[in-house]
Design a protein that fits this description.
264 residues, alpha/beta, Zincin-like, 2 domains, 4-stranded mixed sheet, 12 helices, binds zinc ion
Length: 264
């Protein structure tokens, strides 16, 4: 009896220590078996790349797959909920090929969102900026983009919104205004500019990228960190620099024209 208990406890421990973040699918509309397999291949490969790039999420992820045809793209709409469970809603057109789905940035973007808790509406530019920065990091991890292609994509996105951030006002309030005007590109890519600069500074100072901070952060702090400041501090604490905190202060208080940086 005693031996049985010990074996049982050891076995449970092995099960727990091997616990992996799982994808749990709900098919909200009717899909054929072949379509389901295609979607699972696409989202499974993307989730593996997210985890190999930034580490394992300390939770399972619930995926809801809806049908949305005739919009001219494989995944015309998706959104993420982080309460009460970690959920992503994908609205897809299954007539597109697996290759079309793989080359779409939506899944890398949405799956990256989960690394940061819900931070509220006001500073949505921070959460959207993070996911927008990450989408190309994940596509590089999946060998769907070269570094040169990713750099040129960042450059094009930043150049397209630079004009809104060339004055004495701070980025934070301008980004809130752009969101109210539904100019989402201006809001997303200015947020991504913060993470781009954070990444560049880390590479320069310590020869490591921003993504390398995430395995420790996901483990220690993903479930504890609250708000933009909490997340930024937790990431800074992983490495012992204040790069994120300093950039956040600059984005909130500094003049936009000297804060928004175009990569070389
Ligand atoms: Zn997003």
């Amino acid at each position: 009896m005693r031996l049985f208990s010990i074996v049982f406890i050891l076995f449970s421990f092995v099960l727990v220590s091997n616990a992996q973040s799982k994808l749990i699918y709900t098919w909200e509309d009717e899909f054929s078996e072949a379509e389901k397999e295609k979607v699972q291949t696409w989202l499974g490969a993307t989730y593996n790349a997210v985890q190999s790039k930034i580490g394992e999420n300390p939770f399972d992820v619930y995926l809801h797959i809806h049908l949305k045809e005739g919009k001219g793209e494989p995944c015309p709409w998706a959104n993420t909920w982080r309460y009460p469970k970690q959920q992503i809603f994908f609205h897809i057109d299954p007539s597109y090929s697996l290759e079309d789905f793989m080359n779409d940035w939506t899944a890398p973007h949405e799956m990256s969102h989960l690394a940061i808790p819900y931070i509220g509406e006001k500073e949505a530019w921070y959460a959207e900026g993070f996911a927008s920065f990450m989408q190309y990091q994940i596509m590089m991890e999946m060998s769907l983009m070269t570094k040169a292609e990713a750099d040129s994509a960042y450059h094009a996105k930043f150049s397209g919104v630079e004009k809104y951030y060339q004055n004495k006002n701070s980025i934070g309030p301008i980004a809130v205004e752009k969101r109210e005007e539904r100019n989402f590109k201006a809001m997303y890519w200015v947020g991504a500019n913060l993470f781009f600069q954070w990444n560049e500074q880390l590479l320069k100072i310590n020869n490591q990228d921003l993504c390398s901070l995430f395995p420790s952060y996901l483990d220690c702090c993903r479930k504890k960190a609250r708000g933009v400041d909490g997340v930024t501090n937790s990431l800074d604490e992983v490495i012992g620099y204040t790069i994120g905190t300093d950039l956040l202060h600059q984005f909130r208080e500094g003049q936009s024209k000297s804060t928004f940086l175009l990569p070389n």
